[in-house]
Amino acid sequence: MNNSITNVINKKPDNDAEELQIIRQCTGIAKELVADRSKAAGRALTYHVTTFGCQMNARDSEKLAGILEECGYIREEDELDADIVIYNTCTVRDNANQKFFGHLGSIGAIKKKRPDMIIGVCGCLAQEESAREKILSSFSFVDLVFGTHNVFDFARLLVRVLTRDVTKGKGSTVTDIWDDTDLIVEDIPVKRNFKYRSGVNIMFGCNNFCSYCIVPYVRGRERSRKSADIIDEIKRLSADGVKEIMLLGQNVNSYGRGLEEKISFAQLLKKVEEIDGIERIRFMTSHPKDLSDELIDVMAASKKICRHIHLPLQSGSTRILKSMNRHYTKEQYVELASKIRERICDIAITTDIIIGYPGETDADIDDTIDVIEKVGFDGAFTFIYSKRTGTPAASMPDQVPENVVKRNFDRVLKKVQEMSMTQAMKNEGRIMDVLVEDVNRQDTSLLTGRLSNNMNVHFPGDPSLIGQIVDVKLDECKGFYYMGTLKEEK
Ligand code: 5AD
Ligand code: SF4
User: Fold this and answer.
1) What is the CATH number of domain 310-426?
2) Where residue 189 falls among pLDDT bands split at 50, 70, 90?
3) Where do the domains of the chain lie?
4) Is the pLDDT of residue 167 over 70?
5) Whose CA is nearest to atom 16 of ligand 1?
6) DSSP codes joined into one string, 388-457
7) Comparing 196-306 with 310-426, is the CATH topology the same?
8) What's the topology of domain 196-306?
9) Which residues of 439-473 are buried (b: 16+ CB within 10 A; e: fewer)?
10) Cα–Cα distance measured from residue 380 to residue 385, given in angstroms and rounded to the nearest whole number
11) Which amino acid residue places its CA nearest to atom 4 of ligand 2?
12) Average pLDDT of the residues in 466-487
């Protein structure tokens, strides 16, 4: 490898600006390397990014795709045909890990037939030490492994992969895992999945250490982006036709902590509201312990903030919540939800619930069911507790037997479905604002759109309406979605 390339890929940045400079140099080098390979192959080289997990990962994948396109790769829909495939992984529950390893095994057979194919694994699973060891020992055909803290550094990793010495065989996997980072690099190219909506990171990491959760260990400490950078990004998105944005963070309600400027999440929302062209604002995820009255006020007064809040409950039992390190009681949660419902009419409240946390009894499940009834959730994700090595809950006694968990899970799920159906029925027959997102995949005579409260509606219409906000009558509630008819264009 030539010396100047070695110097660039080994350079350690002291600050965000220096890192950006290194990234730009690496992008230039990667572009030349990709062009050379493309010339040799007699065709353009292709990429595919496969995303698992949450909206944060989806946004990171858009950044990876942006960098790959900047370096000269073009998008390939079929993962198996691409010249480079990046798996952006999730490790929040163990079944996700097992599924991913199964999938990776089958990719090994493809790689045998196409040895030039480059396979990369990044994201939360790669950041977790034991899972990473497994990739390196059992799936040695993987070419690149990196974590959650250096997505912005991907151009440099690409150069390393494209210039590495494959004759080293088993040890040739390029591995670059950072334990944490203070760097927040702006101006990374992004290839959005949707024209009219986009996620926007407002913060990274999580400081809460809920006792079951692996996220703080794989996503690092909480860091907020400067509000000016967030606003600039949203203005650019708006100029590019984006109408709906989703502000992303593990705990958006603590936005601003640690920044030099004094700013709360509610104040950030007010600034975002002023941006012309942005018609809908969503955010994810809110921790109940940090949700302020100021936020409720700003939401109630806003014309753009969607009538939806995702407010993870996890458990309705105060005893379990304490053990989970959630910092609120059953009563506080119910009171908060009722305050939100009183102040913001038509708001949908959705939640996450874990069933089978260590020590959970039937009485605890009764409490969870009681909260589901009292709050009347519009939707809930129910998860079976998954033991994550290294978290405090993993070593707690009284892990709940599988058959008990299954029984309790069914009880909770039944109640959740009952309540969300009751809530959804309330809007049947109403005319509501819908952002038209796409042509319906199953029936192409229909369009699919999203209500402010995050429910989907399918209705007959012309694809030219995609990206517009229209009035739709919700004719029939089908539980998780509605069938509707278009009323008029706005
Ligand atoms: N087991 C089951 N569910 C979990 N979650 C986080 N960690 C675990 C775990 N160990 C759920 C929580 C969180 C959602 C993103 O994933 O409900 O809100
Ligand atoms: Fe995990 Fe709790 Fe942080 Fe959410 S708030 S990512 S559940 S530690």
Assistant:
1) 3.30.750.200
2) confident
3) 3-176, 196-306, 310-426, 431-486
4) no
5) 92
6) -TTSGGGG-S-PPPHHHHHHHHHHHHHHHHHHHHHHHHTTTT-EEEEEEEEE-SS-TTEEEEEETTS-EE
7) yes
8) Transcription Regulator spoIIAA (3.30.750)
9) ebeeeeebbbbbbbbbbbbbbebeeebbbbbbebb
10) 15
11) 250
12) 95
Pocket flag, ligand 1, residue 286 (CB < 6 Å): no
> What's the predicted TM-score (pTM) here?
0.92
pLDDT at 166: 65
Structural tokens at position 92: 């929040």
Query: What are the backbone angles phi and psi of residue 431, rounded to the nearest 5°?
Result: -100, 125
pLDDT band at 171 (very low <50, low <70, confident <90, very high): low
Residue 260 Cα, ligand 1 centroid: separation in angstroms? 32
CATH superfamily of 3-176: Methylthiotransferase, N-terminal domain (3.40.50.12160)
Give residue 488's pLDDT. 67
Residue among 90, 203, 204, 215 whose CB has most ligand 2 atoms within 8 A, to mutate: 215
- Expressed in angstroms and rounded, the spacing between residue 353 Cα and the centre of ligand 1 is 8
What is the distance in A from the centroid of ligand 1 to the CA of 413? 16
Q: Is the pLDDT of residue 229 over 80?
A: yes
Q: Is the pLDDT of residue 406 over 90?
A: yes
- Provide the CA 463 distance to its chain's centre, in angstroms: 27
The verdict on the CB of residue 314 being under 6 Å from ligand 1 is yes
What is residue 3's predicted lDDT score, i.e. its pLDDT? Answer: 72
| CATH of the domain spanning 431-486 | 2.40.50.140
State in Å: Cα 253 to ligand 1 middle: 18
What's the DSSP call for residue 152?
G
In 3-state terms, the chain is what percent helix, strand and coil (to 5)? 45, 20, 35
Atom of ligand 2 nearest to the CA of 251: 5
Cβ–ligand 1 contact at 118 (below 6 Å): no
* Closest-approaching ligand to the CA atom of 287: 2
Q: Is 213 touching ligand 2 by the criterion CB < 6 Å?
A: yes
- Amino acid 489: pLDDT: 52
**Which ligand has its closest atom nearest to the C-alpha of 387?**
1
Q: What is the pLDDT at residue 170? A: 61
How far away, in angstroms, is 372 Cα from ligand 2 center? 20
The counts of H helices and E strands in the chain are: 15, 19
The mean pLDDT value for 448-472 works out to 96
In this structure, are residues 430 and 473 in contact, taking their beta carbons and an 8 Å threshold? Answer: yes
CA of 325 to the centre of ligand 1 (A): 13
215: Cβ below 6 Å to ligand 2? yes
- Average pLDDT rounded to a whole number, residues 323-334: 98
pLDDT interval class at 6 (50, 70, 90) = confident
pLDDT of residue 423: 96
The ligand with the least distance to the CA atom of 53 is 1
Average pLDDT value for residue range 65-87: 96
What is residue 327's predicted lDDT score, i.e. its pLDDT? 97
